[in-house]
Amino acid sequence: MPFIRQGRVLRIALPNKGRLADETLELLRDAGLHVRARGERALSAPLGDDFEAIFVRAQDIPEFVADGAAGVGITGWDLVCESERPLRSLLDLGFGACRLVVGASDASRIESLADVTGTPRVATPFPRLARRFFEQACCQVSIVPVSGAAEITPHLGVADMIVDLTSTGSTFHVHDLHEVATILHSSAHLIVRDGDAGRDPLADRCAVDELVAALASVLRARSQRYLMANVPRDVLARVKEVLPGLNGPTVVDVMNSGRHVAVHAVVSQQAIYRTIAQLKSLGAEGILVTRIERLMP
User: Fold this and answer.
1) Strand order in 224-232's β-sheet?
2) Which residues neighbour 98 within 8 Å (Cβ) at sequence distance 6 or greater?
3) C-alpha angle 70-72-74 in degrees, rounded to nearest 5
4) Residue 257's pLDDT is what?
């Protein structure tokens, strides 16, 4: 999917390091947007012909987009919510999934918010989200902002509880903590400033729409597979039940073979194993499964 030139470059703020940065660059490459001539410490680089990438800390990306330094950005939704800036999500990219949770020491008697008494200290890298959550829950707490390693603070006597991110819960378990409540679910999002689109709203809108369509087509394809098989013509009705596809399977006559027809369909990745078994039971031959690079609705 080539991008239509807009006459100027749209700047995209991207995470500069970590797993979020790696998965972001992989998604952009799959969408046909390759970072060109980026050194280890490069702060910006061309991204295709119509975009420029700027590499900044993930937590700074909401500020860059909200202030207009970048037209769009990719970062964690937790960081967007913590920033409290006027931003909106254009696309949930799916990777970087985690939860922002309230945690307490296993030695404490806190199993739910109803067990919170007095004014406990809560250590967190997300002071705004934590403060808002406890206020809405009518719990009086003292927020202790930290830049990281919140999980160790209860053991050091710095805090009684924490608010931090978790994906598997293993870090909590290692530090003898347990979850008390979930504040929000997060993943990487493509974000844009809410309201004014920039110096040239129409040009920005066209470029952003193309970017969203390209990324969405890659994400859509990742969970699907393209399946082809030769099946007996006399069981075609049953094959169509096995291969519903997006709009039903495509059926093609096989040259010099009156007995078989070729069927092509897009199948959910999770259903591939069972689908192949069902097709083989119906006498299917030459089954081929391949990945899909893009999938437009």
Assistant:
1) 250-254, 257-268, 224-232, 285-291
2) 76, 78, 165, 166, 167, 185, 186, 187
3) 110
4) 65
DSSP 29-49: HHTT--B-S--TT-SEEEETT
Whole-number pLDDT of residue 246: 58
Contact status, residue 125 vs residue 143, Cβ threshold 8 Å: no
Polymer length in residues for the chain: 297
Cα–Cα distance measured from residue 143 to residue 121, given in angstroms and rounded to the nearest whole number: 6
- Give the integer Cα–Cα distance in Å for 176 and 10: 46
Mean pLDDT of 130-158: 95
Beta bridge pairs of residue 76? 188
Of 42-46, 63-67, 215-219, 285-289, least confident by mean pLDDT is 42-46
- 35 CB contacts (<8 Å, ≥6 apart)? 25, 28, 45, 46, 47, 53
For residue 175, count other CB atoms closer than 10 A to its CB: 18
Tell me how far the alpha carbon of residue 86 is from its chain's centroid: 20
* DSSP characters over 244-295: -TTTS-EEEEETTEEEEEEEEEEEEGGGHHHHHHHHHHTT-EEEEEEE-S--
Sheet holding 142-145, edge to edge: 142-145, 121-124, 161-166, 98-105, 177-186
Confidence (pTM): 0.87
DSSP summary character for residue 225: E
Crossing angle of helices 18-30 and 201-222, in 10° steps, is 90
In this structure, the number of other CB atoms found within 10 A of the CB of residue 150 comes to 26
